[in-house]
Amino acid sequence: MGDSYDNALAETVVGLYKTECVKIDGPFRTADELELATLSWVHWFNENRLHSSIGYVTPIEKETEYYRENNPQRQPALGELALH
C-alpha cells in the first residue's frame, strides 16, 4: 500500500473526527473542552467502535480474539493493554 492509500485513510479518519466529534459535540467554548472531546473520541475510535471490516466487533475484542487464537497460553484480558 502506498502513499495515496495512507493519505486517503488519513483523510477519512480526519473527516470522521470532524463529523462525529467536532460538529456533533461542538461548538466548544475553550481549547481544553475540544481537547477532552478529542481524547474521548480517539479512545472510542481505537477501542470501542464497532468496525465493519472486522465483523462488527470492537478493535479490543478483535485483538483479544487474535491473541486467544495465536497465543492460547497467555492472552490479555478484554481491555488489558497488550505488550507486543
What does this structure look like?
- This protein is mainly alpha-helical.
- It is 63% helix and 0% strand.
- The chain contains three helices and no strands.
- α1 crosses α2.
- It comes from Microbacterium aoyamense.
- Pfam families: rve_3 (PF13683).
- This is Integrase catalytic domain-containing protein.
Topology:
Layout: H1 3-25, H2 31-48, H3 59-70
Helix pairs in contact: 1-2
Notable traits:
84 residues; mainly alpha
Number of strands: 0
**Gross morphology:** extended
Task: Please state the average pLDDT score.
Answer: 85
| SS content category | mainly alpha
Rg calc:
16 Å
Portion in strands = under 5%
What is the ordering of alpha helices and beta strands?
HHH
Domain Integrase catalytic: 2-59
Pfam families: rve_3
Protein name: Integrase catalytic domain-containing protein
InterPro entries: Integrase_cat-core, RNaseH-like_sf
